[in-house]
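Annotated sample (chain length 145).
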Amino acid sequence: DVILQGTSSTDPNANASEWHEFEFPCKPGNPNRPHCVAAPFHYRLDWQVWFAAMQNYAQNPWLVHLVAKLLAGSSQHYALLKSSSPFSADSPPRFIRAQLYRMNFANAGAAPYWHREAVREYLPALSLDNKSLEIFCKAYGWIWP
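Output written by the structure step:
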């Protein structure tokens, strides 16, 4: 699973940087949150982020675009997240990164509901000051925040 994390730190590589996870309405993430049941439908963005873990971010440019919009504080994009997410359109993070985790169901009945194991960095820490992010988004014809 791909987990998006944000920080308000001025240096994303500092040991003191505190990274907070973005919560999606129905995607695995927080191991202590129960499984979501939305049958027969599913949350499309949650589903797409889950499938993005099977490839890399270059094969999922829309995910990089989502990160840019979250960094810019797009209220339309924050509306797709759980209201309990640590950031908002009024207070976006300074940096966002994505980490790749291997997720497994835990035993039924009690928290934690998931067991997760960190695999690797999926997307390095990005900010709106990152010229490469701007070039990447513009190459796809997206309006730069």
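Annotation: The beta strands are 2-7, 20-21, 95-105, 114-126.
Annotation: The chain has a mean pLDDT of 92.
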